[in-house]
């Protein structure tokens, strides 16, 4: 197994490629967002999840919201991949829970601290188990006609891109977000849940919390500042939402991610 931290500087808004996957990989996004087309399937990747590749997969990438996204690529062997991800998934894209995201970031923090190989291996296997439990949960809109399904997928992709662009998008109201993607609040909300299986509110809160965690990793220290920046009513509101999504309060996670008590 090998783990690589990827900072993408590609700024093409259109698809570039193609390339071909040369191994089995599990890719987890940590910040930003981008479009992926893998084996004919197109989807938007943001900090709420990631995607899988198999050897020989043709893939292309586009960056409609610009460069600077961060991801973690985990390369594993065929047996390990088959053991956890065997069978055709509903989608190459997957979402992960807030708890899994914390495990992901804690693995990287442990590596930065110089944890030994045994500990890192155990953390990595736990993370892969978590991801395997989520794989396939991002579904396609099978209840619609093909043309409608494509339109719905495009609407969800555009909404994800606006939210993944950072703080400005995350501070939009539902009405403002709907206007930004050319839909009505009711239609956007209904379609988003039909395509992804989750509500816009839940997805937005996942991205807000992961934005806060990324900022803590990057050295921001003030939870009050982060609460304001990400549109929470106050620090107590940030704490409640963070506990709901990750099982931990931000002050504890700050210590986990920065090696501070």
Automatic annotation (TrEMBL):
Keywords: DNA-binding, Transcription, Transcription regulation. GO terms for molecular function: DNA-binding transcription factor activity; sequence-specific DNA binding. It holds the Pfam family HTH_18. SMART domains: HTH_ARAC (SM00342). It comes from the Bacteria. Residues 157-256 form the HTH araC/xylS-type domain. Gene3D superfamilies: Homeodomain-like. This is HTH araC/xylS-type domain-containing protein.
